[in-house]
Amino acid sequence: MTGAEACMTGTEAYMTGVTGTGEALPARCSGPSVWRGGELAGRRDEWILRLSSHHLAEIGSALRQARRRDRTLLKLTAADFPLPTLAGELERIAEALENGRGFALVKALPVERLGEPAASAVFWGLGQYLGRPVAQNADGHMLGHVRDTGRSLADPATRGYQTRAALPFHTDGADLLALLSLRTPCTGGRTSLVSSAAVHNAVRDLRPDLAGRLYSTYCFDRRQEQLPGEPPYTAAPLAARSPSGALSMRYNRRYLESAQRFPEVPRLKPADLELFDLIDDVAGAPESRLDIDLEPGDLLLLNTHRVMHARAEFEDHDRPDLKRHLLRLWLALPHRHCADGARHGVTPRDVIRPRNGARQTTGGI
Known about the structure:
- It contains ten helices and 19 strands.
- The strands form six sheets. Strands 3, 4, 5, 6, 8, 16 and 19 form a seven-stranded mixed beta sheet that branches.
- The protein is globular and about 65 Å long.
- Strand 1 (15-18) and strand 2 form a beta hairpin.
- The chain has helices spanning 3-8, 37-40, 53-69, 86-99, 111-114, 116-127, 196-206, 208-211, 253-258, 270-284, and strands at 15-18, 24-26, 48-50, 103-107, 132-134, 144-146, 167-170, 176-183, 187-188, 191-195, 217-221, 233-237, 239-241, 247-249, 290-292, 299-303, 307-311, 314-315, 325-332.
- It is an alpha+beta fold.
């Protein structure tokens, strides 16, 4: 099957009936994954873990043990980074990520005192308790750096995290997204989250004639992140349901629209653009979204099947050592296939196969 043929292939939808005009109507989502940001903003204790002095002492001890074992970062496992009590907190977070609201915020990692190499090791060690790290780009990078490189999104080889531009609501390519804030910008850069299930329900209720299109398959631009032999775009439905009815949402309007540059990709219809407009409007509504100003030492964790995220444009500092900088991990959940549908461009990979032939090297900690 060619890429273009895959784009035209539908997906089995989780439908309960039809609208008055004959369109298929998906079932409503329910449960803790359906939330409104305006309500959660006042209940921060439910989704924030502030690390205690005891937790920090455990992290320090784990870091020292990891150093004694003299492993490179990519070989560091949970066994190399023991957390006797914090592991239990991370297990509860993992449960909330998969079966609860789909996100959590861990605060007070001492990144300024640790410095970037040690903070990277701590970040990687914590991630081992939540999922399996996978490559984030076609060059095989497992630990990503989110910062402005001066590039423009007008360049089809540029991805949003490499710029300071505003990034509308979207999902990333793996099951879990982890972001550790090292430094914040001069102004702007606010992160916003929204429940994908709540957006799904709003589309269903407001425009039942468009709701079935959530389950149609669309083409997403890979932004030149494909490996040799791979097509320059992927095909995936915006919404899919598990047998239990749990929703998995994948969305990135910029990549949906830039895939139209390939002549073999089916053309977006006016109704598709209406659907995208509605998703953007619902997700961006103040009552829907949860706004978070990340501080140095904040670790944001998202289940990308359950939560979409956005970032405001920012102005950075002039000094390079002060510029906005986050570390990023893509994590695969143990029971999912990490390349499940190639969620919107880069195919997460367990094996590092850089397209340029040079394996990523990560030094000791």
